[in-house]
Amino acid sequence: MTNTRTRILDIAQDAVLAKGFEATSIEEITAAAEITKGGFFYHFADKNALALALVDRYIDDEEALFDDLFGRAVQLSDDPLQTMLIGLKLMAELLGNMPEGHPGCLVATSCYQARLFDGQVQQANRRAMLSWRARFLTMFEDIAAQHPPKDKVDLSDLADMLSGVVEGGIILSKAVDDPNATARQVLMFRSYVKILFQP
Q1: I need a labelling partner for 24 at 20 to 30 A (CA). Which of 18, 65, 72, 154 fits?
Q2: How far apart are CA 173 and CA 53, in angstroms?
Q3: Within its chain, how far is the Cα of 179 from the centroid?
Q4: What is the Cα–Cα distance from 166 to 145, expressed in whole angstroms?
Q5: Which residues contact 71 (CB under 8 A, 6 or more apart)?
Q6: What are phi and psi of 17, to 5 degrees?
Q7: pLDDT of residue 2
Q8: What is the pLDDT of residue 1?
Q9: 132: Cα within 13 Å, side-chain hemisphere
Q10: How many degrees, rounded to 5, is the angle at CA 104 between CA 102 and CA 110?
């Protein structure tokens, strides 16, 4: 049963990232998963429940990814600025190693089509963004305590900027058909952080 649920989520995620939630039908998901509609509804009450499960899984995956990237960075340096710079470099390398570019962000996709969902999906999106803000804000506060910024900057806005750079980079990458655009945008953000905090 768990394998069927995972297969449904995998198929739905690929379809949603390719063409959005609205254009993705339950019929095409069940056909691709080779299950009946009853099989779909056994796992998900409706399309909204599917969207919530997709967003929740995406958030968990992103959190695990950040834990890995910045966890590795912490092992390489005790200095919080160097840890951030290493983590951003690892993130850029990960993005640069995606030959087709980043497939897209389910949080962004569901935000663009928020009218399709109930409050639970919107709350999940908000929870994701606030969680990422909190993660990076803590890191920037640690950096600022040791390396005061050269310019007046709101550290919460700086933390949000990283999300904006990645999401914007994904859009830019798709719009100009340049798979490496997102990685370069992360490296530009890294340069800004370096200039802002480096003594």
Answers
A1: 65
A2: 26
A3: 16
A4: 26
A5: none
A6: -70, -25
A7: 64
A8: 54
A9: 26
A10: 165
What confidence score (pLDDT) does residue 187 get? 98
The DSSP 8-state label assigned to residue 113 in this structure reads T
Tokens of 139: 């890191």
Task: Show the 3-state SS of 39-64.
Answer: HHHHHCCCHHHHHHHHHHHHHHHHHH
* Residue closest to 58 by CA, chosen among 116, 16, 106, 98: 106
- In the chain the domains, ranked by start, together with CATH numbers, are 1-44 (1.10.10.60), 56-197 (1.10.357.10)
Q: Could you state, in chain order, the average pLDDT of each consecutive group of 10 residues for the chain (199 residues)?
A: 87 90 91 93 92 91 94 96 98 92 77 74 88 96 97 97 93 92 97 96
- Cα distances (angstroms) measured from residue 103 to each of 117, 157, 173: 22, 26, 10
Q: Do 166 and 187 meet the contact criterion of CB atoms below 8 Å apart?
A: no
Distance CA 55, CA 164 (A): 18
Structure tokens at 149: 């910024």
pTM over cut 0.85: yes
Sign of torsion, CA 149 169 128 10?
A: negative
69-72: long-range pairs with CB below 8 Å, 24+: 69/94, 70/139
* Distance in angstroms (rounded) separating the CA atoms of residues 11 and 169: 24
Strand, coil or helix: what is 198?
A: coil
